[in-house]
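Example record

One chain of 231 residues, shown exactly as stored in the release files.
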Amino acid sequence: MSSKSHAFTVNANGRSQPMTFTADRLVCCGWVGRDRAALDAHIAELAHLGVPRPGRVPIYLNFSPYLLTSDRDVTVVSDQSSGEIEYVMLCHGGRMWVTVGSDQTDRDVETKSIPASKQMCVKYVAESCWPYDDVEDHWDSLILRCWITHKGARSLYQEAALGSILSPAELIEHMPGGAFRSSEGVVLFSGTIATRSGLVYGDAYELELEDPIRSRKIAGEYRVTILPQYL
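Predicted structure tokens for this chain:
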């Protein structure tokens, strides 16, 4: 697969510095809840839309690195696509780094093929990151939040501490072949948390990863435009 370079800002020890990251492999995880009841709720949420229930959990899917973007304007071809907040791990320079992103997915196509539904949409990542070892000792207390704007109304769409889903160590442990630790340039999207009121096809997404222990946040946002399929 072709590689794609990204410019990140590393925030650590009260200082910021640039980091050029080359993505060689993109892996998206799914059905990663630690709480079985919450996980079943998310599976049921998607099953309501016709998405087949998984044969195993978690799942890992390979996608093209060119899908990664930090652009604040993204295009889709359907009015039935939606984003979902996730933590994102980067493997670079023998270390791991954490940021926040969104796995935009075409929900109509998802009822027919989960890989196809994700491959046809970009994967947004914020432009800043933290060293993973800066947050590893209080990982479960980090908080994911996502606001959506839909038909002009902004609302809190997702919110949960990272203790509610599998940690990087758990995802890496279960990953077939140990692909993350053995490969420079791997990007791992964690899988998402449950929505507060069901799936919504948002017009804009605001993402936040909060570290309440160190009083800091990583934030990102993007708008979605439906690209006319015919002239």
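Notes: The two ends are 32 Å apart (CA to CA).
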